[in-house]
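Q: Sequence in, structure out?
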Amino acid sequence: MNPRRDMSDPGAQWLADGHPRPDQVWGEWNDDRAVALLPAGVRWDAVVMPQARLQAVVEDMSPLVADRCPILADLNSARAYILVPPGTADTWGDVCTEGGISVTGEGSWLIASRPLGRQSRAATWLIAPGAVHRLANPAELLASLRRTAAPAKGPTAAPPCATPCPDPAHQHTCARGPFHCGIPRDATENGAESCSWTRRSPL
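A: Exactly. Output:
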């Protein structure tokens, strides 16, 4: 007996038909766990990212939502999966290795709830495939990931020493780094070494 198929759920049909045994997918959706194991690299690949990063990408790349791009989420691990055309994993290579970004393609599997069925926390559709949906454009998605990446951290300048000038008539402070041990002068302020410091600045 074939598993019960819901013909009113076109997104489920599209997903199941990407499996070598579609009836197995429907059977898994109809059992108590209500999730099915789906192969990547047939109808779609998936770009994987933390959900916090997904929020930044969706805000940056509004057509993702407008074009009904399918997005799956594992609420237990706070990870999201944006569906992109199959073969994307091969073309992206190691481009997206920062910030927990990766690409899942042929040879990998994801669990997914039925789009219009009961949703599992481990496989919840944030945007489910339906009769009309579009896979995310890989070039546009990659550009958005680069725009929303955290800026690289460069060397941090040491704060100035800020030791007051010993001459009470002067208002300037030492602008050298905080770890110097020499005798600072006020050349920067007055254009000449006119203030002699009689004490060492603290380490």
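DSSP finds seven helices and seven strands in the chain.
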